[in-house]
Design brief:
The structure is a homodimer. Chain A has 8 helices and 8 strands, in the order βαβββαβββαβααααα. By secondary structure, the first copy, chain A, is of the alpha/beta class. In chain A, strands 3-2-1-4-5-6-7-8 form an 8-stranded mixed sheet, with helices on both faces. The first copy, chain A, folds into 2 domains: about 1-150, Rossmann fold (3-Layer(aba) Sandwich), CATH 3.40.50.720; about 155-250, N-(1-d-carboxylethyl)-l-norvaline Dehydrogenase, domain 2 (Orthogonal Bundle), CATH 1.10.1040.20. Chain A has helices spanning about 10-20, 70-75, 130-140, 155-185, 190-200, 205-210, 220-230, 235-250; strands at about 1-5, 25-30, 50, 60-65, 85, 100-105, 125-130, 145-150. At the A-B interface, α4, α5, α6, α7 and α8 of A face α4, α5, α6, α7 and α8 of B.
Chain lengths: ~250, ~250
């Protein structure tokens, strides 16, 4: 069994703890949490510590804290030359303190408090400072996921930016759609099956093959009708820019 | 059995034909198709006609053609005072010719050629010129879907614009994400589970509760890092505008 210590008690830490608890290849030996509150029903509360000096020797320390805190937390660790990784998509490998062997263990998924996640399908993006450490990290990831990738810091940065487009920005488009529904007294629920189908389509079709709508059809009269319908300046600006981008992509093909 | 004639042989027509073929409440008596090619394995090919004058009497005529063609097709019908509906989200009720009783039968979903759709969950937005006709249209919709709504032309216009945001624009964000992946040699497949989870989250959470990411957290240093990462002008413009919109929405709360 690979011995793991988790540092942090937030959303990502909790989901990892629950996933590892069900794995036969790894054992969580400790969790560092400032508050020492119970973190998960699957975690023996005696394993929770808030004292750096009580940290036992583990094969892997996973720092699952906010990006801003990674450097400080990794520099507080009272040991050297052990494998210490963070879970961030945007922080580089070098944000970790030099005294330990560095790595990144980035689950590319959006975690919601209280919503169970099936880790098997979640892509894990791994990077280590030293080649030997990669195998340990890979074993740990493969014990909970079927999608494990070697991704260097530059690639991870690209993935993180792309994730902002397909996740954060997409969700914001849902919010704007919701606004338009509310302003015109139609239930947003009517759009939910469409939202799901849009995401399901992309699992098998390329985004360019899956594209539909007035801009894709170069249907300028529908576009003009939509633009005159939208009186909210923010909605209208975003409508125009995304429509123009779809039109331009059509021309490139 | 309610007798239905479908006019058109495109994507929406084909999906409706397959759905009605399994319904016990309605019967497709004819399909008008200019080409007379076989349309669906579930449709007896003797029911296909390309001659307006052979159209038999039906309780309902569903015009499933492109928006531009609705007016012309409805004016070509060689009869009067029957119930004739179109399936468009953006065309108003009045785009149909005055000689027949008008209605709209709009399935709010994106249809992909060759991909089966479960109609039970698809919202149908109905509108009729005369109250009596609404019941017929409702029965027809309820025979294939559990989500039937009375939606007037103004509401339908709002829904259609909102659908452009949550479907067409969202898919375009997938395309930009794909571009960023390709430019940086990471497989787009890594983002697919995230795309699906983003759409699934919204089925139970409000878009504003589901929002995550640097703009939501007001994490200006990550935003600055992303902006300097993006060298493509179009990607960069869209990143800035959507980020600003999320930041502004955060301030409103």
């Amino acid at each position: 069994m690979i011995k793991i210590t988790i540092i942090g008690s937030g959303n990502v830490a909790q989901h990892l703890i629950d996933a590892f608890a069900k794995s036969n290849a790894v054992e969580i030996i400790q969790v560092f949490s400032r508050t020492q509150k119970p973190i998960s029903p699957l975690l023996d509360s005696t394993k929770i510590t808030n004292d750096w000096n009580t940290l036992a020797e583990a094969d892997l320390y996973i720092i699952a804290v906010s990006d801003d805190a990674i450097a400080a937390v990794s520099s507080q660790l009272p040991f050297e030359n052990r494998l210490v990784v963070h879970t961030s998509g945007s922080a580089p490998l070098i944000s970790l303190d030099n005294k330990n062997r560095k790595g990144v263990f980035y689950p590319l998924q959006t975690f919601t408090k209280g919503k169970a996640v099936d880790f098997k399908g979640i892509p894990f993006c791994l990077e280590t400072q030293f080649e030997n450490d990669y195998q340990v990290l890979e074993k740990v990831a493969q014990s909970i996921s079927d999608n494990v990738f070697a991704i260097d810091s530059h690639q991870r940065k690209a993935l993180h930016v792309a994730a902002v487009f397909v996740n954060n920005f997409t969700n914001h488009l849902y919010q704007l759609g919701n606004e338009i529904c509310q302003e015109n007294k139609v239930p947003f629920d009517i759009l939910k099956p469409l939202i799901l189908e849009t995401a399901e389509k992309i699992q098998t079709l390329s985004p360019s093959d899956a594209q539909t709508g007035p801009a894709k059809r170069n249907d300028l009269s529908t576009i003009a009708a939509h633009e005159s319908f939208l009186t909210n300046e923010n909605q209208s600006t975003i409508y125009k820019i995304l429509t123009q981008s779809i039109l331009n992509h059509g021309k490139k093909l």
